[in-house]
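chain and backbone:
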Amino acid sequence: MDRRSFITATGALAIGSVSAATLATPAIARGEQVWRMVTTWPKNFPGMGVGAQRLADRITAASDGRLTIQVYSAGELVPPLQSLDAVIDGSAEMSHGAAYYWQNKSQGLNFFTGVPYGMTSRELSGWIQYLGGQEIWDEIYDQFGVQGFLSGDTGTQAGGWFRKELHGLESLQGLRFRSPGLGGQVWAKLGATVTNMAGGEIFQALQSGALDAAEFVGPYNDLALGLYQVCKNYYLPSFVEPGVATELVVSKEKFQALPADLQAIIKDCCQAEYDQMAADFQVNDPRALRTLVSEHGVKVLQFPDEILKAGAKASAEIITALRDSSDPLTKKVTESYISALATMRERAERTEVPYLQARERYFSL
C-alpha cells in the first residue's frame, strides 16, 4: 500500500471510529441496557403470555429505553419449566412464570402462587404488600440469587377438564391428572396420579391419552388451548387454586445494580400489570365460557361435596405439615400465610360473601 492510500484508509477508519463513538456515547451516558425475559407461556398466549409482553413493554417505555426488555416465549431460549434456572445461571435476567412451578427448590414458594382453600388474589396481594409476605419471599429467593415480584392475577381458576364425570372420590383413583403446586399434592392425596407440565404441552398429553384430566387456568386460556376438543366435562370453580398470581423473577445482583429509579419502575410496572391482568381475566373468562358452552358443547359442572370435603381435609393436612417443617423458611412462610389468611377471612366472610349471596338471590336487571 502506498503512503497516499494508507493515509486515505487510516483517515476513513478514524472517521468511522469517531462516528461510532459519537453514536454510542449517548447510549453509554444514559446507561442503556437490554435484558432477556424468558417465560413459561406460549407466544401471544391470552392473559399470561400477553401480560408478560405487556410488562416488558411497560418497563421499556417507562424507562425511556434505558432498560429494554426482550421477551422469549416458552421454548424459544430455554424450556418453559427451566425459566427460573435460566435466571439463576445467568442465561437470562428475568423470568415470567408461577412460583409454585419451583416447589422442588423450596416448598415455601407454593404460597406465592395459589394455595388450596387459601387466599383469593386480592388477599394474596394484601399479604405480600402489607403483612410481611414480600419479605419472606425475598428470604427464600435470596438462596438462589434472585428476587420475585407479583406480576399478574388470574383470579379464581377453573377446576379442570375431565374425560368422565366425577361422582365421588372413587372417580379419582388412579386418574392421570395435570395439576401443579400444593393443589397437585391435594389431588394426589385424594387418589389421583399427578404430574406437572407446561401449558403448551397439555393438549397433546390429553389427546394422546397420557392424561385423563388436566387443569390449567380458566375459560380464557383453556379455550385458546383447545382442551374442549378432547374433554367436555369442565369443573368450576377450583378449590385448590382460589387466587393465582404470576411472578416476575429478576437476577438480584443485576436488579440491585440498577439505579433506584429503574428498580422502582420494575416494581411499579409489575403492580400495574398485576391489576391489568386481573381485569383481562375478569372480562374474558365469562365470554370464553359462553363460547365453550354454546359453540363447543362443553358441560359445566361443580365438584361433588364428597370431593370438596376431602379436598379441604387434605389441604389442611398438607399446610399443617408445612407449618411443622424442619426447613425454617418453609415453616416461617406457612405461619405468616396462616396468620394473614385469618385476618383477611374476616373481611371476606363478613363483607364480600354476604354481599355476593344477596346479589345472587335478590338482584337482577
